[in-house]
Write a structure and sequence with these properties.
This protein is an alpha+beta fold. The chain has 9 helices and 20 strands. Strands 2, 3, 6, 9, 10, 13, 14 and 15 form an 8-stranded antiparallel beta sheet that branches. The longest helix has 39 residues.
C-alpha cells in the first residue's frame, strides 16, 4: 500500500500533534479532551498531522528497538576500541544503552541528534556531514574524498601512514612517498600498492573497490592478503573475505559526482546509502522488503525523492514525521 498525504503539514503542526498524542495517552481530563477537540477541528492539517503522529507512535516501539540496537552497538565498538579490558562491562551495559536509545527516539531522533555519529566523530580528524561530499588533502598530499556522513582518523607515524575509516565511505588518491599507506576498517585493512580506490563500511564488515592501480586487502591482522586491480571489488566481515569480483568502478564511484548507481542491490543497502544524505533518520522495518533488489541511478542530493520513486515501484508504506522516515 502507498500512503500519500492529502494536506500539507508543517513541522510546528507535527510537533503539536505529537504533544497531543502524549497528553491523550496519559489519562487526560475532560478539559484536555475539549481543548484537543477544538485544536483538531481548527485546521484540516491538524487532523492530518495527528493521523501521521499516530502511525509513528504505533511504529515507535519497533523503530526504537532498531535504532537502539544501532546506537548501542556503535557505543560498544567505540568504548571497546578505547579500552579493550572493558568488554565485559560493555556487554553488561548494552541493555541499558538500548533502553536509553528507545527513550530518546521520540525526542532525540526528531531533533536530529544521533549518538552513533557523535561517537564516531569524537575520535575523527575529518568529518563530512549528511548530504556533504568533502575532499581533504593529507599531510603527504594524498587526497581523500569523503562521501556524505563519513569520518576518518589519520595517524602518520612509525614509518607508516594509517587512515581509519570510522564511518561511511572514503575514496583515496594516494601520493607515493616510500612509506606504506594503510586504510583500517572494521578489523581489516587495505594496503596501497597503487593509487585510487574506495573503502566502504557496510552494515556488516567493509568493502574495497579499486579504480586504478593495486590494493592488498586483508580481512584481519593474520588473514591472507588478496590483491585487487582496477575494476575489482571485495568485501570482508569478521575476518573472512568474500570472493573478488569485477565491477564497473566508474559507476560504483558515481557518488563523487552526485549519483548513486545500483545493479541488483538489496534495498537495505540502498537505504544505508540514502541515510548518509538525509539529515534525520530512515528506518527500514520489513526484512523481506529490504532483501528486494534494486537497479538504477539516482541523484544523491534528494533522498526523499529517491524513496518516493522506489515506493512507486515497490509499493511499500512510507511514514514521515519530524525528520524520521519509517519504511515498511
Amino acid at each position: 500500500m502507498i500512503s500519500r498525504s492529502r494536506v500539507a503539514v508543517t513541522a510546528e503542526q507535527e510537533r503539536a500533534a505529537l504533544a497531543w498524542l502524549s497528553v491523550l495517552h496519559d489519562q487526560p481530563d475532560s478539559g484536555d479532551q475539549a481543548t484537543f477537540s477544538r485544536w483538531l477541528l481548527a485546521d484540516p492539517a491538524h487532523a492530518e498531522a495527528y493521523a501521521q503522529a499516530q502511525v509513528v507512535w504505533e511504529l515507535s516501539e519497533v523503530a526504537g528497538a532498531t535504532l537502539a540496537d544501532e546506537e548501542s552497538l556503535a557505543m560498544q565498538r567505540y568504548l571497546s576500541a578505547m579500552d579493550k579490558s572493558r568488554r565485559g562491562r560493555l556487554r553488561h551495559w548494552s541493555g541499558g544503552l538500548a533502553v536509553a536509545a528507545c527513550l530518546l527516539l521520540m525526542v532525540g531522533v526528531f531533533a536530529g541528534w544521533q549518538p552513533a555519529r557523535w561517537v564516531d566523530d569524537l575520535g575523527a580528524d575529518y568529518v563530512s556531514v549528511p548530504g556533504q561530499v568533502r575532499t581533504v588533502v593529507l599531510a603527504d598530499q594524498s587526497r581523500v574524498t569523503l562521501d556524505a556522513d563519513s569520518a576518518i582518523a589519520v595517524n602518520f607515524s612509525g614509518g607508516e601512514r594509517h587512515v581509519q575509516l570510522r564511518r561511511g565511505v572514503a575514496f583515496f588518491h594516494v601520493t607515493h612517498t616510500g612509506e606504506p599507506f594503510v586504510v583500517d576498517a572494521d578489523g581489516g585493512e587495505a594496503r596501497v600498492l597503487g593509487t585510487e580506490f574506495e573503502v566502504r563500511l557496510q552494515p556488516g564488515g567493509a568493502q574495497v573497490t579499486v579504480l586504478s592501480g593495486r590494493v592488498g586487502v586483508k580481512a584481519g591482522k593474520n588473514a591472507a592478503q588478496q590483491i585487487l586491480t582496477a575494476d575489482q571489488q571485495i568485501a570482508y566481515d569478521a575476518g573472512v573475505t568474500d570472493t573478488v569480483h569485477h565491477v564497473d568502478s566508474q559507476a560504483r564511484l558515481g557518488w563523487r559526482s552526485g549519483w548513486l548507481s545500483y545493479y541488483k542491490t538489496p534495498l537495505v543497502d540502498v537505504v544505508a546509502d540514502l541515510k548518509r544524505y538525509y539529515p534525520g533518520q530512515i528506518v527500514l522495518l520489513n526484512s523481506e522488503l529490504g532483501a528486494r533488489k534494486i537497479s538504477g541511478s539516482f541523484p544523491s542530493q534528494d533522498p526523499q525523492a529517491v524513496l518516493n520513486s522506489l515506493q512507486g515501484v515497490l509499493g511499500f508504506e512510507q511514514h514521515n514525521v519530524l525528520g524520521l522516515i519509517v519504511l515498511r
